[in-house]
Structures are given as C-alpha cells and as structure tokens.
Amino acid sequence: MHISWSDFALRDLKQFDAFEAQALKIQLEEVLQTYPCQEGESIRIRYDDEYVVICHRYAWPKTTSILRILYEPLEI
C-alpha cells in the first residue's frame, strides 16, 4: 500500500515541532499500512486527543492519501 501526503497535510505538520512531526509522519504511515479500510472510504484517525488526521483510500492506484491534520480537541 502506497501512502501519499497532500500539500495541505505537509503544511499541517508544521504546527508540530520537527521531532514530533517526524514521529507523527512515521507513526501514521505504519498505522495506515494495515488500517482496515475499503477503497473509496475516507477515515478519521485521532491523534493525541487534540488532532484528527483525515485520510482517503483510493482504489487505483492502491494509495492511501493523508489529506489534512486538523486541530479538533475532544469535548469532555
């Protein structure tokens, strides 16, 4: 499974310090390799209770694209 990053998602990584951004990038790519998701499906993955990562899995070519990393804190 190929993982791609949109320009928006790469820009969104700049809200983190360099070490955390690199760790998040590696972690997301590892998780998405085995994430149970069908082609054509959009997914939202929580990160650190304050951010949501929005992705979309494409059928052709078999790619999961990381579209955005948005600040969206959990409401308690």
Descriptive report:
The protein has helices spanning 7-12, 18-34, and strands at residues 2-5, 42-47, 51-58, 63-71. By secondary structure, the chain is an alpha+beta fold. The chain has a 4-stranded mixed beta sheet. The model has no long low-confidence stretch (mean pLDDT 93).
End-to-end Cα distance: 35 Å
Mean pLDDT: 93
Tally of individual helices: 2
The helix/strand series, from N terminus to C terminus, equals EHHEEE
Low-confidence stretches: none
Shape, please? globular
Give me a quick take on this structure:
The chain has 76 residues and is of the alpha+beta class.
Topology overview:
Blueprint: E1 2-5, H1 7-12, H2 18-34, E2 42-47, E3 51-58, E4 63-71
Parallel strand pairs: 1-4
Antiparallel strand pairs: 2-3, 3-4
Summary keywords:
76 residues, alpha+beta, four-stranded mixed beta sheet, 30% helix, globular
